[in-house]
Amino acid sequence: LRVVEDGTLVLDGDGEGQYPTLAIEHDADESSTISGVIQGSGNLSVNDGTLEVTANTGTNWQGNIELGTSTTNAVLNLIGENALGNGTVSFANSGSVINLAHNADLAFGNAVSGYGTITVDIDGHNFTFTNAEADLTAGSHLNLLNADFSLDAAQNADVAQKTLISLGSESTLFTNGGTEAVNRSIWGLDLTS
Q: In Å, how far from its chain's centre is CA 147?
C-alpha cells in the first residue's frame, strides 16, 4: 500500500505474490471518499457505511472490493465511468448496494459477485453491462432510477435473467422487437417504483 506524491493510491503486492487488503472500517453513518487515481492489484474491504469512488482517467486498478460483512452491509457509490478500472466487487451481505451515477451513457464492466443491489441513476441515458456478471447471485436487484436499459444488448439480457429489475418513473426497459428480435427472459420485474 502506497500513496504517492500526486495522490495516487497504489494497492500493490509484497513482491511474493501476496496482495494486501486495505480495510475501511467505520460506522453505518460514516463515509470515505477516494477521488484520486487507484492502481495495483491489492484489495479493499468496506465493513459498514459508504465508500464513494470518483472516476479518474489514470485508474488502472485490478483488485476486489468486498462490501459488508456477514452481519453488516455497506454502500459503494461509483461516480462516473470506469471508476474502479478493472476491479471487481463482492457482496458479502445481501443488504449491500452499489450505486452508479453518471451524467451520460454508462457502460459498466466490473465483475460483481454475490447477492446484493445495483442502483443506476444516469440522468436518463443508456446503461449497459459489458460483463455478463456470471457470479452475480440470482435474485439480486437492479434498480433503474433514471436510466434506459435495452434487453437487446447481450450482457444486459444475461444480467436481466438473474435480477429483479425495478423501474423508476424516469427509466425505460425495452427491446427493439424487430425482425432479428429474440425472446428475452427476466428474473423479475417491479413496476411499483
A: 15
- What's the CA gap between 46 and 176, in Å, rounded? 40
What is the rounded CA–CA span in Å between residue 172 and residue 81?
Answer: 20
- Which residues have C-beta within 8 Å of that of residue 1, sequence separation ≥ 6? 9, 10, 11, 12, 20, 22, 42
**What distance in Å separates the CA atoms of residue 27 and residue 47, rounded to the nearest whole number?**
8
Q: Enter the C-alpha cell of residue 4.
A: 504517492
Short-list 113, 101, 86, 175, CA closest to 144: 101
**Do 188 and 164 contact (CB within 8 A), yes or no?**
yes
Q: Which three cell numbers stand for residue 39?
A: 492502481
Grid cell of 3 as nine digits: 500513496
Distance CA(109)–CA(85), nearest Å, equals 9
pTM over 0.85: yes
Rounded to the nearest 5 percent, the helix, strand and coil shares of the chain are 5, 45, 50
CA 119/CA 46 separation, integer angstroms: 18
Whether the CB-CB separation of 152 and 129 falls below 8 Å is answered with no
Question: Which phi and psi angles does 190 have, rounded to 5°?
Answer: -120, 115
What tens digit of pLDDT does each residue of 8-61 get? 888 887 677 777 788 999 899 999 999 889 998 889 999 999 999 998 888 999
How far is Cα 85 from Cα 17, in angstroms, rounded to an integer?
A: 21
Cell of 124: 436518463
